[in-house]
Structure to design on (73 residues):
């Protein structure tokens, strides 16, 4: 049995990078929503924070959907 260690290492590296990026993107979305709530509590407009949060969540959803597409197709 032969294990291609270079391919295994590259899959591990890409998986690690994508996972960290998705978690970071989701965290930015959560932070945007919390800023929206704190801005609305102070009477300020939080349109930019809300738009950024929804953009982060949309990017996360698109990345997960693409991953599922790659697995199924």
């Amino acid at each position: 049995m032969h294990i291609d260690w270079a391919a295994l290492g590259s899959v591990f590296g890409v998986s690690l990078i994508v996972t960290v990026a998705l978690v970071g993107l989701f965290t930015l979305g959560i932070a945007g929503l919390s800023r929206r709530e704190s801005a609305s509590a102070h009477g300020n407009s939080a349109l930019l924070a809300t738009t950024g949060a929804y953009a982060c969540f949309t990017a996360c959803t698109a990345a997960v959907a693409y991953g599922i597409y790659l697995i199924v197709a």
In short: The helical segments are 5-41, 47-72. Residues 25-73 form one domain. DSSP finds two helices and no strands in the chain. The mean pLDDT is 90.
